[in-house]
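New to this. Please check both lines:
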Amino acid sequence: MLAQIKTANQSAALVDVNATRAYAVVVSVDPGVANAFKDEIAQSNAKIEELQKAIEAADPSDADKAQLAKITELRKQLQDLTSQTALLKVVKPGEMPAFVENQYRPAVKALQDAHQQFVQMQDAANEALRESFEAEGHKLILMSAGGLVVLISGILVGAGFLIRSIKQPLLQANDLAARIAE
């Protein structure tokens, strides 16, 4: 579970960094910015996909699968919008600020929020698992204590019977010795 949380956090962090890089590329008119971040964005995207596959391979819950599908869809939408911004820069540069503000930034925010929601889901699942283990531990402690009480009671009852079985013939022998002495 902790590995899954770590993977989810790594993925969310990479998405945040990549979103910042992509935003810089989108809003910049300098082609050098795009060239500077091109390889880093590609590497981050590959790492994000690798992390997402690791999460999917860890047998996620149905809610996790639904959230991962949402994240995948939001990533595709953001990639489409990124492609549109490249076209707008060339064809209609005057529309870029409105497009970025009204469509691109909300899409980035939605993707980041979806990743954070997934991280929160993993944290909540971990907390539920921890509470479950804690409850099972309490149950085990109570059962062990109950078993110990039964065991000690059994030992005491057994010792009582053993002492009685030894004491009874000794008392009879004592009575016999006393009668012989009389």
The first helix runs from residue 2 to 27.
